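SAMPLE LOG
Freezer: B-3
Tube label: C17
Construct: single chain, 108 aa
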Amino acid sequence: MNVIYTVLAAFALGFLIRQRGAAVATYLALGALVFGYQTLWLVLEWVGGSTAAFGGPFPASADSQIFGYGAVNLIITAAGVALVLLGVRVGSRRAVRRGDARASVVGA
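STRUCTURE (predicted):
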């Protein structure tokens, strides 16, 4: 779910929101909602008996698998921030080429 959110929204948010800080904050805030929903979904599945999410039955799952879940999501978030910053850069260059007056405040 986080991967889908990152692929679909990260670059677009950066492209549409010209201030780097605001774009990254928006991406992270929306990403926190997606991550929370994804985590709740996986934990409820796990409690219900599914071992697909964490690799072991509830509550006896290996710590390494749970930490791995966190590490993978951290990598996905870092890639999303990079895509947001790329979107800001592309959007600002496009605005400069078009002669947009707001382009001078890009990256502030």
